[in-house]
## 1
Amino acid sequence: MEWKGRRGSRNVEDRRGMGGKTLVGGGLGGIVIVLLVMFLGGDPGDILSNLSTSPANTEYVETEQDKELAEFVSVVLADTEEVWKEIFEQEGMVYREPILVLYSGSVQSACGMAGAAVGPFYCPADERLYIDLSFYDELQTQFKAPGDFAMAYVIAHEVGHHVQKLLGTTEEMARIRRQVSEEEYNKYSVRLELQADYLAGVWAHHAQGMGVLEKGDLEEALNAASAVGDDTIQKRARGYVVPESFTHGTSEQRKAWFYRGFEAGNLDEGDTFSAGNL
Ligand SMILES: [Zn+2]
């Protein structure tokens, strides 16, 4: 992706090196997990449990790679702001820009305390995206999804969750979550996540329109979408898959919905909840 020297977003909050320790003394009594939407699978409860085990504030030294990545992330965020502002305007709505928090190690969000192991996530309660830049290396080594556009897809997916919050989908999901069993809810979760992939694709469509996509970028995103599919992750982690436990969709589904958004470039084709066959 062409990004060097381009405008960055003013909505980046740099908390690297701060740890999550500022709020540790305050206790978590008043914090309620509304609905935490993570890039990868996982139980929001795990995040809170990280609190007692998260290491004390360790010093953070910015590497050259991180410096570059932080700039990159900021440019991608600025691009998403532009695209979603325009799409929302066309729909007669106003786009409220989210804040992107860069952190290292652990971070406090309105959805609870998170460690880096959680992966990038969006917290609807404070409308912030949380990203530990070390995830870029993880994408490359653990998920075999290298490339700047793989990372751009991750950010665009989290922004997709923010779009869902603004559209009221997140709230509706929280309501459903209180009413159905965990296994039943997983099916809704898959649809929510695939829609975030679709919305990431919508953004990529416009990035292409702006002429900032480079050869191979689309493939990087599709490869990343495939790499984070539930079946692929489960197969690697335990050697078999448990479809009932899927929360994000299979590799095939994630790729397909990203691509569908990429082709459409608008909200029209993105109703994963009504789609009979995902
Ligand atoms: Zn997600």
Note: DSSP finds nine helices and seven strands in the chain.
## 2
Amino acid sequence: MSTLPPCPKCNSEYTYEDGQMLVCPECAHEWSATAEAEATGEGDKVIKDSVGNVLQDGDTITVIKDLKVKGSSLVVKVGTKVKGIRLCDGDHDIDCKIDGIGAMKLKSEFVRKV
Ligand SMILES: [Zn+2]
């Protein structure tokens, strides 16, 4: 049995590989197997900093504006360096630990990769 995905156009199961391409013999549709794999990958959302750098788990960032810490009088000062960020889902897409403040969440639009 073939493990190739069905044709995205006509749903035919008789697709075959032709080099890097997948080909459907029924409707003659050709598409790239690698592009398909990337598109359906883990569904990873790309998170970018304020200037468009792609952020990854473990990156070090600096905060580009003073940020009030919810529910306290603390402020994360502009220029604060944060090591070992973790990306997460949601409105605030960065999970991190800040010296003197503790665990908190940041928005990627207010940080910059170092
Ligand atoms: Zn087809």
Note: The helical segments are 33-39.
